[in-house]
Amino acid sequence: MNNTFKDLSLGFQHVLAMYAGAILVPIIVGGALGFNSAQLTYLVAIDIFMCGVATFFQVWKNRYFGLGLPVVLGCTFTAVLPMIDIGTHYGVSAIYGAVLVSGIFVMIIAPFFSHLVKFFPPVVTGSVVTIIGVTLIPVAMNNMAGGQGSPDFGSTENLILSFTVLVLIIILNRFAKGFIRSISILIGILTGTVIAVFMGKVNFQAVHDASWLAIGKPFYFGTPTFEIAPILTMIIVAVVSMVESTGVFFALSDICGKKLTREDLVRGYRSEGLAYTLGAIFNAFPYTTFSQNVGLVQMSGVRKNKIIYIMVAMLICLGLIPKIAAAATVIPTAVLGGAMLAMFGTVMAYGIKMLSKVDFSSEQNLFIVACSVGLGLGVTVVPDMFKILPSELKILTNSGIVAGSLAAIALNVLFNVIGGKKKQAEVAVEKAS
Q1: pLDDT tens digits for the chain (433 residues)?
Q2: H or E element at residue 167
Q3: Alpha carbons 408 and 374: distance in angstroms, whole number
Q4: Distance of alpha carbon 135 from its chain centroid, rounded?
Q5: Of 42, 299, 347, 358, which shows the fewest CB atoms inside 10 Å?
Q6: 154, exposed or middle or buried, with CB in 10 Å at 0-12, 13-18, 19+?
Q7: Residues 403/134/21/42 CA torsion (nearest 10 deg)
Q8: Residue 225 burial (CB < 10 Å; 0-12/13-18/19+)?
Q9: DSSP state, 146?
Q10: End-to-end CA distance of the chain
Q11: Which letter does DSSP use for residue 75 in this model?
């Protein structure tokens, strides 16, 4: 009995560690695209449900899929702004068409990805993640003020709520330890929401209207459509996620004392591709490895897959109860904004951390980062710069993330792949002479 309670407690810890990230993404994306309360409730519920399903296929090791380690999958924050951009310019159906194609793309290239890594070194992936983080910050700031277009934008109440959440998260990260620190975002959101209730800024009507039980429906938001620019955007997001996941896979294998083979990595990549595909079919999200749960594995010292299977069961059960999902949708925008600034800032900081591995004694690497981040941020801030271009070329300029990412990839090929081979040839000639 004691062992069962302990296992359930450990499984619930994993749920809490990833829950804030799991609910924030659908609320941000759905809110930005103008979804009503019923649609938002569905989006949160199916996201929680699919987090469980995606995690199951990654933990369950078989011939074709599964890393077989205690890894947890959730929606990648690198997909937030691209999905909002796609939904705004092409419609919701184009989001899921792009996610579907990118998932199939990941499954196809999984066996060959190790040979493609040279095109995505830290100077490229770090630049892309930094671009995504920087372009997400305005979203967080607008929400801290109450949401763009809201009648009480920038009001004292909204600023008090958002900064209370942010300060609490900072305090917990400074003074708390272990598990409490790992769920600081969730604690901040819950505390902010309770304060908002006493301020009369929370409406529970969505919870009242939601049903107690519902099952996700394939293509809930309609049949997917396929547009070149959105597909290209989500493929870039998927590849960056694969590079990030590779590092997490190896970190987890080191914690668990299990050496990963090339076949293990291929199965792990395929599982992420399958997660993307299933996310598209049920109108959820693209899923990737959650590093916070890897930290929880290390902190707890419990490395059993059994614990993750328990967490999977909990997530699937939670995803079947719309009332629980609806509770997440009543969180005030200002409260979310405070948490979002911390989380999106972390995305940007993680990009900078990835860039710290780059050899900046090479002016060429400095140039790659300068041009790609500058172009990505520039296109985001001044979107009308390329409005006179023909539609065929606008595919590359409609999104700062696409423009910056393609610039980073192209410049890396020019300076470090082609240029690297040239330097090696010159060194060989010098040695021969």
Answers
A1: 567 777 777 777 777 667 777 777 888 888 888 888 888 888 888 888 888 888 898 888 888 888 888 888 888 777 887 888 888 888 889 999 999 999 999 999 888 886 776 677 888 878 877 887 787 788 788 888 887 777 878 788 888 888 988 898 889 888 877 767 767 777 888 888 888 888 888 777 766 766 786 777 888 888 889 888 888 888 888 887 887 777 677 777 777 778 778 888 888 889 989 989 988 898 888 888 876 666 566 655 667 788 888 888 888 888 888 887 777 777 787 887 888 788 778 778 878 887 888 888 888 888 889 998 888 888 877 877 777 776 656 656 666 777 787 888 888 888 887 765 555 554 444 444 4
A2: helix 156-175
A3: 11
A4: 14
A5: 299
A6: exposed
A7: -50
A8: middle
A9: T
A10: 76
A11: E
C-alpha span between 207 and 189 (Å, rounded):
17
Give dist(CA 220, CA 223) in Å, integer. 8
Residue type, 341: L
SS3 74: strand
Burial 344-367 (b: 16+ CB within 10 A, else e): bbebbebbeebbeebeeeeeebee
Closest CA to 32 of 136, 151, 154: 136
**pTM attached to this predicted model:** 0.72
Q: Does the CA dihedral 166-128-329-325 come out positive or negative?
A: negative
- DSSP string computed for 83-136: HHHHHHHH-HHHHHHHHHHHHHHHHHHGGGHHHHGGGS-HHHHHHHHHHHHHHH
DSSP string, 334-386: HHHHHHHHHHHHHHHHHHHHHHTTS-TTSHHHHHHHHHHHHHHHHHHH-GGGG
CA distance 179 to 15: 12
Instruction: Give, as one character, the DSSP assignment of residue 79.
Output: G
The single-letter code of the amino acid at 257 is G
3-state SS track over 10-73: HHHHHHHHHHHHHHHHHHHHHHHCCCCHHHHHHHHHHHHHHHHHHHHHHHCCCCCCCCCCCCCE
CA distance 117 to 431: 29
Q: How far apart are CA 319 and CA 44, in angstroms?
A: 8
